[in-house]
Amino acid sequence: MKKFSVAFTLLFVMLFAGTSFAAETVKAYTTMEEPLAKALFDEFEKDTGIKVEWVRLSGGEAIARLEAEKANPQASIWVGGVGTQHIEAKLRGLSTPYRSRVANSIPPKYRDPENYWTGLYVGPIAFCMNTERAAELGLDMPKSWADLLKPEYAKKVRVAHPSTSGTAYNMITTVIRIYGGDEDKAFAYFKELAKSVEQFTRSGSAPGKSCALGEIPVAIGYLHDQIKLQREGAKIQIAIPEDGTGFETASMSILKGGPDPLNAKKLYDWVLGQKAMDIIASWYVIPLSDKATPTNTGFSLSNMNLVNQDDQWDAANKERLLERWNREISTAPEK
After folding, report:
1. Would the pLDDT of 324 be above 60?
2. Residues 251, 81 contacting (CB under 8 angstroms)
3. Which tens digits make up the pLDDT trace of 39-71?
4. How far apart are CA 129 and CA 132, in angstroms?
5. What's the predicted TM-score (pTM) here?
6. End-to-end alpha-carbon separation of the chain, Å?
7. Which of 43, 111, 206, 329 is least surrounded by CB atoms within 10 angstroms?
8. What integer best gives the mean pLDDT of the chain?
9. Distance CA 240, CA 222 (A)
């Protein structure tokens, strides 16, 4: 009887331990492209045994969902997404501070001083053009924001809608800075740009994919997304706007009141570590961590005409600028 009792106890312990291990999860929202998110989160699971249950959302969709779930949060961490949106999440009380022990690998200017978010990489805005479609249509590669207003680009450009895409909102603030902070001149520009835009998409990466497929000759998006498409064989040419470009600081936040706070912190620390940063660097982005081994893309920040970006201002003025965009330019993205 004693041997049976001991054996039963051991079996119970093993079953309980197995159940506990199986229950090790962390729920996440991500604004990274799905294949990239999967590669990163799968590696985390291999290293830790913690499964990431993730949902991919555009930046604007992430903020909207977090706001809707504020009383009953469904995720514990948000990985990726334009830095201004992580600042917005902080200002709306949707995230919570966390001082990661690995955060010192990121320069202070790319970290929230109160530890609400941490930057992961930088991605400049760029133009891409499908060379085959351009040859058919007799189009030259646009090299400036001003070029996009030329009549030959009418309905030949695709870009995301700023109400759902951090990429597109970054475009708004970039052009405002190109015009020396004069918002009226910037919005006069956007009214003209709208004549060149064939479609406003929901996601910032969607226009580049359409351009790679030849659905549209020209797209506006982030440089790393376009380089990835080019390296995968897409017949596209890429240019950084000569009259100035802005950039995203892709970031990460712990979400307030999330269901898996401990595992969220483990994931946060892991993403800032050597293995994860090397994975991120392979995505053709400009990594911020001193642990990362950068990938040679042929582009350098030192050769770009970068605007004087202020993410705090961008976050604080987002609602006002989006209201003006919806009132004067376009009310909704394409489905």
Report:
1. yes
2. yes
3. 999 999 999 999 999 999 998 899 999 999 999
4. 9
5. 0.82
6. 67
7. 43
8. 92
9. 10
Instruction: Give the containing element (helix H, strand E) for 239.
Output: strand 236-239
Residue 253 CA to residue 282 CA, distance in Å, equals 22
Long-range pairs, 38-47, Cβ under 8 A, ≥24:
39/279, 40/79, 40/271, 40/276, 40/279, 40/280, 43/275, 43/276, 43/279, 44/267, 44/270, 44/271, 44/276, 47/270, 47/275
Cα angle 220, 169, 86; round to 5: 120
Reported as a single tens digit per residue, the pLDDT across 75-109 is 999 999 999 999 999 999 999 999 999 999 999 99
Q: Is residue 170 classed exposed, middle or buried when 0-12, 13-18 and 19+ CB atoms within 10 A define those classes?
A: buried
Side chain identity at residue 291, one-letter code: K
Report residue 96: phi and psi, to 5°: -135, 150
Q: Are strands 218-222 and 51-56 parallel, antiparallel or unpaired?
A: unpaired
Residue 140 banded pLDDT, cuts 50, 70, 90:
very high
What's the one-letter identity of residue 325?
W
Distance (Å, whole) CA 192 – CA 160:
16
Helix axes 183-196, 318-328, angle to 10 degrees: 50
Q: At what angle do helices 183-196 and 166-178 cross, to 10 degrees?
A: 120
